Amino acid sequence: MTENTQRNREAEVNLLAAAREAQWSAAAFMGPNAVKVVSPAKVNLLLSIGARRPDGYHDADTVMHALALHDTVYLRVQPASEDEVAQLAEQAAAGRVDIALGGPAGNLAVAIDLADRTGADLSVPAADNLAFKAADALARALGREGAEIVQLRIEKHIPAEGGLGGGSSNAAAVLVGLASQWGVSPDDARVVATAQALSADVAFFLQGGCAQLGGAGEVLQRILEPSRKAVVLVKPAGGVSTAAAYRAFDEAPAPVSAALLQAAAAAASADGVPLANNLAFAAESLLPELAGVRAWLADQVGAENVLLCGSGSATFAVAESFAEASRIATAALSRGWWARPTSFSGLRAAVVPGR
Ligand SMILES: C[C@](O)(CO)[C@H](O)COP(=O)(O)OP(=O)(O)OC[C@H]1O[C@@H](n2ccc(N)nc2=O)[C@H](O)[C@@H]1O
Ligand SMILES: Nc1ncnc2c1ncn2[C@@H]1O[C@H](COP(=O)(O)OP(=O)(O)OP(=O)(O)O)[C@@H](O)[C@H]1O
């Protein structure tokens, strides 16, 4: 190969890489076919898990609160021909592209660019991504049979397997983003039912702010006044699988006391809800380092209340101020843990207007 041919080949490869990159650039998600959706994290102020039901799920009484910490989901919908979607399906089947096919007639091609900004380098095949599952479920619920390509770019700031609901929040963001593109209200009964069928956390993120939920955690009971307080999050390197935490819980189920449940039910605002999580013991049995994180956080000056986030492995503390939360987060980072200062928020999965 001459030097010139070699140089031309390299230029060709660079052009291909640039074209691929451009497909996912911020500019690609501008315009009428695209939306930017905020996708917040949550914590459970109260998580009271009850009996295991015949369907394998557990009764749950929970008060969830959205945080200011959030992922961002960029979403673009392009009408396509059936041939285009069929070609993408062929390439996906041959393992040449990571595109998941869904919708009522396999008519929806979904490509996902997951940009992990948490330092963990999360990688999830498109078909396993909760964001794809949400797109597939909504297309079916709305009976959308036309060929379409949905392109998603998910910028992740919420660590996975932290009990912060990141994946579920991304799913809710996709429901809301697609609903807006498909001319359906995010409060439409079919969107709400799709969220509830996906999971308790997805259902919560449609509502956001602070809310109490029952059933298996997916049935909205009431809305509470959000808190304005600061929060610090600390997570060791390991995660806790939610399903494994529930299994460990079944080996030693311990109910939240009736007095605490009554106090939570009587609280009109998030600040009045007593903190409790009866999954914490199970999570600590799976990841013993969690007990060390809890004890360390409880010892920090300026940390008011400490509780495991959902099924773990993040722990949160309510802080006296954002400055205190930042100081504690810095100290936690120096111990090798992931940590962030943030605050409670009234956010929900919602399209960012005016772009
Ligand atoms: C721990 C929480 O995050 C608290 O908000 C939720 O209860 C779980 O939320 P999630 O991760 O969205 O949960 P899902 O995806 O619905 O369930 C994951 C697994 O957790 C178990 N699971 C979940 C919810 C529930 N009420 N009972 C359960 O037993 C089931 O084994 C299920 O297969
Ligand atoms: N969009 C997504 N973001 C993060 N994880 C995803 C996503 N889609 C699928 N997953 C898978 O789900 C797993 C759990 O991720 P997630 O961030 O939802 O955990 P979590 O915060 O502990 O969940 P929850 O609080 O809802 O129990 C990940 O390990 C990953 O394999």
UniProtKB/TrEMBL annotation:
Pathway assigned in UniProt: Isoprenoid biosynthesis; isopentenyl diphosphate biosynthesis via DXP pathway; isopentenyl diphosphate from 1-deoxy-D-xylulose 5-phosphate: step 3/6
GHMP kinase N-terminal domain span: 129-209
GO molecular function: 4-(cytidine 5'-diphospho)-2-C-methyl-D-erythritol kinase activity; ATP binding
Keywords for the protein's UniProt record, in alphabetical order: ATP-binding, Isoprene biosynthesis, Kinase, Nucleotide-binding, Transferase
Entry EC number(s): 2.7.1.148
One Pfam match: GHMP_kinases_C
GO BP field: isopentenyl diphosphate biosynthetic process, methylerythritol 4-phosphate pathway; terpenoid biosynthetic process
Active site, renumbered: K42, D201
Reaction catalysed by this enzyme: 4-CDP-2-C-methyl-D-erythritol + ATP = 4-CDP-2-C-methyl-D-erythritol 2-phosphate + ADP + H(+)
Binding site for ATP: P159, A160, E161, G162, G163, L164, G165, G166, G167, S168, S169
The keyword Nucleotidyltransferase belongs to this UniProt entry's keyword annotation: no
Domain GHMP kinase C-terminal: 279-332
Family, per entry: Belongs to the GHMP kinase family. IspE subfamily.
Role: Catalyzes the phosphorylation of the position 2 hydroxy group of 4-diphosphocytidyl-2C-methyl-D-erythritol.
Record protein name field: 4-diphosphocytidyl-2-C-methyl-D-erythritol kinase
